[in-house]
Amino acid sequence: MIGKKSMIYVAATAAILASAGVAQAKTVCYVTAADSHAYATPANVALQERADELGIEILNLSQDFDVQKGTEQLNTCVARGVDGIILWPLDPQAYIPGLARAQQSNIPSILINSPMAEQANQFIKSFTGPDVYEEGEMAADALSTAMDGKGSVVIIAGQAGNGTTIGRVGGFVDRLKEVNSDIEVLDTVNADFDQQKALVVSRDLITRFGDKIMGVYANDDTMARGFIDAWKEANPSEPTPPIVGINGQKDAFESIRSGEMYATIVQSPVEDGKLAINTMAEILDGKEVDSRLPIPLTVVTMENVNSVEPAF
Amino acid sequence: MRQTIAIVLQYRVAIILALTLTVSGLIVPGYLSETTLSLGLDRAAAIGLIATGLTVLLIAGQIDLSGGAIFALAGIVSTILQPSLGILPAALVGVFVGGLCGAINGGLVVGLKVNSLVLTLATMLIFRAVAHWITNSQPVTGTDIMFSLTMAQIYLDIFSIRSALFIVCIILLHLWLTRTIAGRNVFAVGSNATAAEESGVAAGRVVFFGFIFAGSLAGVAGVLQSLVTNTGSPVFGSELTVAVIAAVVVGGTRLEGGRGSALGTLGGVLTMAALTMAMEFQSVPAYLQQVVSGLILILLVVLDRTVHTRGRAAGAIPLLVTQNPITTGGKP
Amino acid sequence: MGKDLTLVREEIKPEMGSTDFALSMKGITKTFPGVKALSNVNFAVKFGTVHAVVGENGAGKSTLMKVLSGSYQPTSGTIEVGGTEARLRRPADAQALGIRMVHQELNLVPDLTVAENIYLGRMPGRWGFLDKNEMLQKATAVLQEQETAIDPQEILGNLSISQQQLVEIAKAYAANPRIIVLDEPTSSLSEHETAALFRILRKMRDAGIAIVYISHRLKEVLEIADEVTVLRDGSMIETRPIAGISASEMIQLMVGREVSNVFPKSPAKIGEPVLRVNSISDGANFRDVSFDVRAGEILGLIGLVGAGRTEVARAIFGLSGIVEGTLTLNGKDVVINSPAEAVKAGIAYVPEDRKGDGIIPGMSIRENISLPVLRSLTTFGWIRGKADRTLADQYVKQFSISPPDPERRVNLLSGGNQQKAVIAKWLAAKPSVLILDEPTRGVDVGAKAEIHNIIGQLVANGMAVVMISSELPEVLGVCDRIVVMRDGQASPPIDRQDLTEERIMALATGEEVA
Amino acid sequence: MSEIASELDSESSNERFARGSRLVDLLSKTGLSLAILAVILYGSFSSPAFFTTGNFLNILTSMSIIGIVVVGMTFVLVVGGLADLSVPATIACGAILSLGLQPVIGPVPAFVVAVALSGLIGSVNGVLVGYLGVNPIIATLGIGTIALGIVQAAVGGVIVYGANPESAEFVKGRLFGIPVVVLIFLAVAVIGHFILARSFWGRWTLATGGNYSAAEASAVPVKAVKAGAFVITAVAAGISGGLLGLTLQSARPLIGQGYEFSAITAVVVGGVSIMGGFGSVPRAIAGLIFVQLLTNVMVLDGVRTPIQGFVLGILIAGAVGMDSALRKRGVA
Question: Chains D, B in contact: 3+ Cβ pairs under 8 A?
């Protein structure tokens, strides 16, 4: 009996202490895309480090690229009664009810990295991160320059249905249309942001189109790497066609230096993460923030490869 | 003592759930609250509804890996048809599509007499492909985001529409499995299909309808998910199957068929949800969460195995020759 | 009791048509591609009689019963049930006409309760809802009528095999059948249980049910049947009232020849003890079992089902654990924890359930025979093909396994030849002790003699053989000494000359005969 | 006469081994070869790029990594272990460790340690399935989750990059004009084939899958054999993962996702029975070749990814359906 009572005391004390702790440090729920991912990991780390500096406690939830899971994790955030939510959306619509629920509970939310549909705007304070659509456009411009505005290309896209993929492919294709380019897209294949899958689909693309591939647009540098490996397997002596990737990884920089790749677009995950938490901190301090806060994007080619820092 | 162990074993799911809640409540501040309960329930609903359907199939000795794909497909269909049919009729069509997928699974398993593990692996790929096909791999959006917000509301401080539906389904299934002849026949088919068949139970039909039931419930879950998120996406539910199987097995349903219960599944689903929520509250990294849920799954199954084997051995003791009244001339 | 009876079953006999015959099969022929399994069989059973069907394996008993139960369609011929012609396309058709089968392999559902099993497929209820009380009441009554104390609420899987067999019979009985077909119902029952079963069968017979009784045990047939039909090679040989036939006549009709000595005993020189079992216990099924078996000797190990015979054999062979006691092999103490260790020590075990534990059905005769000694046929782990083939050739010849093709899949052989292959498998291991568990069960008379011959040769060559058998005449004919087990305990080995069937039964049941 | 009659009896009671007639055997064997031939013929007509050395080398290279897993998975199916769903985790373990340990102990020891630790995962699976009798689906699912979590925790949940370009060059390079990966795959396949078809262990594996209790009673160490199949699969998956990591020079936890289903697909399409006791490595590899050729032809014809999934699904369903139909004809 005594044991039970003292247990209750301990529990109560713990609860009081804990709630006191919560009252002091602000807690922010960060629903990230994944724990282990070339881009997401450094962004997560940067966000966490910056949060530590700001004295904000981060509740880190990983969706593991599963939208379903993410929509449910928003429930956890609300139930936990956090002070703010930073969401990495993987779908333009699906999170809206969760965000609405957060708003009902007076929890401010912002988006990091990827945009959502317009209907989401009323439920979020801001969207920080790169403009994936703009990245597509920039890639189109870069590839047009490299190919003098004509020829045929293949697109190695990310995961089908993923917001980033949609933006990056859409921006690219729309831009080509917009400028009435003579560049023809031979095919768009999905390689799920996966190097191995990119390697496999590239082998098939090379067999299928051979010389017709005069340019390559990969939705990220990992997949560009896959294409380069496949090309080297098939044509060890020939130089690669112009390849444009996105993200600005270290090895992409090296490929640009060696001439294997034409360009990449630097989108710093560190900036991405920092900007999000900084914005959230301002919101928590009661400041107004802009509804759209982009991170800088830089096209890197042979010319400026030595003057720009790789993203990660 | 034996009896105590038996009781503990019988209610082990409830005990584990209670333990999870108590420990989490002590460690995690602000865990035991109405909001956590209601949102946790809502969170468990999607897995729970699919698990409800899978429970019947597992008891009947079959398995369905395609639940996640049906979930996505049904949601997409119900979303795409919203403009032409209106929200509710479209939702019904979505559920119907789920049932249809189940019928395809069931028809093939029963008709071709093939192993359901492999066959539903195949239909999983097919249904998922169809989902990608009709959406062109893009998520599709519903007509009315306000409806989604209503769906996401918490009523009576505890239930959202889908969590209420989940609980109702589980209770109905419990009654059906324990109180109806058809329900008992499901156990018979899972335990010994040949014997059931020879006793006049249409084993094939039981399995067929089991698949339809599982498909329909995956459809219901998918449609609800799409309504709640106003989105139908071909990538929805890709990680669900594993979570669903784990929840049902933790709930004490045997993968080989013949044994299981709806309330056990409820316990399993709630345990896994409570655990996930507690760990998320503590910001436990996803990979460590995986380790914990994996360990619980393995521990429970191993426990079940050892106890079960022991039980069987005890049953094999030849006592019956002496204790059986037949051998003693009908006198006890 | 009488009250319960009316509660459970309605009266059956009247209104069955104008005939005395419950069943009349006329001119039944069943051909499979290339094979005539039944040719022009006429078979009729009267209401209120027990009709035995006997015949060697492959004589067509099973095929005939499968036609009757609706599992097979006859190629030609008619079936009349209760005087009206019936078409039995599936088991359900047969059941609808009141035909019930009690299979040799139990056809029950282990995870349901006894009551649910008895009423499986016909549970009482309203609007789909199960009426548990009614079911329980009825099941209790049926079980009481059968004089068993099985709890109808017990989960079936927790019962012993013989109890399950009784549930299976109760299940058939509770279905209000007009015709019950029992296929070797006593194979797992003790003498006492068999006696009780016969009481039930007589009761059913007196209630007007037609009973078809298939058995290898001619003694039982003589005891319970009113009529007997003999099948041979797919044809009906004869139907006779039981009063005018003896066991030896039946055997003659079954095999079509006179079998002079079913159990030849070849004298062998008995040497030193090879295996000595020193008060072993497994903590559950048997305790304090001691015996020894000598070179050139056949030691019988008998007892009622459940007495622990098979368990002792399995324990010696390392398939289950020994908690107490030791084994001495050729004068040395040995510890055996697995079949592999047993083989190494020189012990071999031919299990009781040939299909379940004996053969690997998908493998050839050759692969089956070399399995226990595979390691000795390898060089650095690779199987030496020639050694493998030589071994198989040798035993196929020695045991005249037919067809003499070592590459033939073993499941395509007849039961007797399968059994020979299983024994061959063990001889390849060159054991000094061979344990045979029911080596002649389910084997036809001819093959039985061949197997006895093989055993005779083995002991003549100095092997020690332990033979488990339920057939007392076989044991008394073949064995030199006999150990009788009862309730997990064993008698000391007794010389054959000092035993009679009655004496063995007395030891096995613990009831001293005056 | 009596012999044939009982043949019929044993046929029907042992349905899964009723592939009695040589004709059926022949048909099921040549069926796949014919299908492969048909695909090659079709491919040659439909695409000029198909029938080229380059393309065939591509196909070979692409199938090598998964092919190594297929060899292992064949053992699991043959021994009657249904499927090893921990393959993605084992592959990730192999990849992450073989890269992550490079700076510490050098590339070759890192690879060896990675494969050994993968084997350890397999032995845990093996103990659960073989010795404790846990359902393989649950055991491998659970252990896979746990192993993946632990490996991730060990590297801090991030991506691991290669630190030894030479090892990458070696793996990506060619020997006698054939890619090294292909050579390794061929070596694994040949060894796997000889173990299954010519060694005592293989015979034991087939016996255990064919009739567990009979094998046990025949002094086959059935538990070890069953466990061994999972160890073999895990080692194969570890090698596969290590090679994958070296080729890509980066490894993330989800690197092996989907490999388990691809491997099962190949094995099943190859006509290896999921019920155990029957199958061979060449059959499984023929299945893999067929799947790979078909995928290649579809890609060359510009068939969209979702439809490829559709075709693959139909293929699996067709394979198991045909298997079942052939079996039935074998009985009649």
Answer: yes
